[in-house]
Amino acid sequence: MGFETISVESNQAVGAITLNRPASMNAVCCAMLYELAEAVRNFDAEESVRVIVLKGNDEFFAAGTDMTEFVSWQNGALMKDAMYSQAVQTICECRKPIIAAVGGYVFGGGLELVLMSDIVIAADNARFGFPEITLGVLPQMGGVSRLTQRIGRAKAMDILLTGRHISAQEALECGLVSRIVDRMDLMNETAETAQRIASMPAVGVALVKKAVLQACECASKSEETIARLSLMSADAREGINALKENRAPKFIHK
Description:
This protein is of the alpha/beta class. The chain has one domain (6-198): 2-enoyl-CoA Hydratase, Chain A, domain 1 (Alpha-Beta Complex), CATH 3.90.226. It has helices at 30-45, 82-92, 109-116, 143-151, 153-162, 168-173, 186-198, 202-215, 220-230, 234-244; strands at residues 6-11, 14-19, 51-55, 60-62, 98-102, 105-107, 119-123, 127-129, 166-167, 179-181. The strands form two sheets. A six-stranded mixed β-sheet has the order 1-2-3-5-7-10, with helices on both faces. Strands 4-6-8-9 form a four-stranded mixed β-sheet. Helix 3 (109-116) crosses helix 4. 42% of the residues are buried.
């Protein structure tokens, strides 16, 4: 079937998913998350596909989460959205390696997708961050737990509590990304890595991924409840409404 927010193709043993919401700089909305989960599910079930590549474009991977959607999800309605949690779970439980090829902006929901990936190849112009704190909310897809697990408590606190952006070099130094390449080489490097993994014994690759994930299990399920609660605060409503109205938020710290 066709997708509206992503495009999908396969090349031999590699399945590729491209984020495709250029008007919003690939901001991750619910529709995109659901379509991503479906595409990942389909590739996971396709025996000929051994590796999945997730990518954006040269200027941005995904510049955030589409927070305007949260305006309509007041009074904890999102907490009841089982599809949202199931979509995240589907991506995270994919048996096949997911390689994220990232350049430009990798913020909010985009960074959450990166944290769900197994290998992250970053262009030298990539910038990473979680700006959610500036709206009084938390990342909504388990990003706090996964970031802390990936880079450690001190660095995670620094990024999450300040909302600052970090460079590709800083991301490499703290273990957020696997390697940095020249932006002109990003797709070639990713393709070569994907083909190399695809050439390995499929059962062995699946078992390696399973073993690594079991060694790094995090408390993302308990975080999910906390993240949803953050949407119910007065400051979260103010922050999201301010974003929608293109003005500075006026927080009351409640």
